[in-house]
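Give me structure tokens for this 255-residue protein.
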Amino acid sequence: MKSAAAILLAATGASAFAPQQTSRASVSLAANTQGDLETLAKDLNPIVGFFDPLGLADGDFYGMGNAASIGFLRQAEIKHGRIAMFAFVGYCVQSNWIFPWPQHLDGSTGPSPDFSPEQQWDMIPEAAKWQIFGIIALLEVFDEAGGAGDGSGDHYTGTRQPGKYPTAQPFRDNVHFVLDLYDPFGFSKNKSEESKARGLKAEINNGRLAMLGIFGFITADKVPGSVPLLEKLGAVIPYSGETMAPFEANFHVFN
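Here you go.
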């Protein structure tokens, strides 16, 4: 029933996050001033507009300056939105289907979809979890280095557009062929700047909706009755574990 819940959420919520149609180029997606953020916020959601109750857009993180700090915040939101979209879709898929081929050295497949995704995560071997976190760490280091081995590449707090993952060209030149994470097949190469801007704004809105969606699923499984709609759809599998523990509830890095 997770798939039914996902369809319902998409149908009822997407319009609320749809970007306002506009004929002007609006604001650059590399917005790095509070004025840019206010304009972008209106484009993303004209009803809510600019919402910053903690005043983070005025911040100067780590002495980087305000423009760099805004780049840091925008990168964080876009990245969290993308991960939430992966998580939301993965949650729905894992609740209904798993890969049928062997996934472990003993020839067994992954945990059954009869278990919730949280339970499935608890059931996979620790070595598999370390592989996942290892790949994430490598991707993060490559991003922070701007795609350059010496860390000299463009950074999202500087000249690189927030959310634009660095090209893997240096890796292709020096190691072996690999696709770029950002537009790997070059679909956006011939798009107009306005079309690219609309697509990226839609991505931000979809990411915000996905963050609400995935936490709705997790909360419903952990706290009975917290999301009545999912309860009515039969999409809840109670989970008694620790959702935010990376490996298991008693896991600690140093012992």
